Structure formats: structure tokens, C-alpha cells
Amino acid sequence: QLVESGGGLVETGASLRISCVFSGGTFYKVAWFRQAPQKGRELVGYMVWRGGYTYYRDSVLGRFDISGDNAKNTVYLKMNNLKPDDTAVYYCATASNVASDYDSWGRGTQVTVSS
What we know:
Helices cover 0% and strands 52% of the residues. It contains no helices and eleven strands. It starts with a strand and ends with a strand.
């Protein structure tokens, strides 16, 4: 089970950190996706849980950071210098092993960036 929290309404240029608490098993990698109104879901970035390798889409590279706290069963997405184009529902998802697709999903948290 994955539960996101921490979304909200912020102004352009602000920072926000959203969280994803996970339970019920282990996983290989965890990702953040987002879906803006009338747009398809897109991968924001992911982290290999053991090892810490991260990947980010070009539009957020250098602004967003994925981190994890194993003791708290929590993954974070820290977003800096937010832009109106970052407005979306943000979802976390996990892939249980290296060969699997993302097979567990949270319900999402809304992030709105005002211009």
C-alpha cells in the first residue's frame, strides 16, 4: 500500500516536499509519476531503493530530488523552483523486482502552482 501526502497550492518559484508512505513488502524501485488535467501520465523520476540510483525527466532535472527514509518507510519528492507546468496529481509507484513494471500505486496528491 502506498499513501501520498503533502500536496497543496504554492506560488511559482516555491518549494514543496511530498511524501509517500509504503507498507506491505519490499520493492526494487520507487517512482513518482504525475498527471496534469487532460494530459497523459508521465514519469517524473525514480530511485532504485537499494543503491540509490536516480533518474529524472529532463524538465525536472536539477529542480526535483527523490530521497528515501527506510526507517520511516517513506519516499520523498522535493520540488524546487516550481512552475505552473508542474501542476498535476502526483503518484508514487513501486516495482517489485528489476524485471517488473510498476505494480503498486498510490492514490495521488494534488500539486497546484499558481502563476
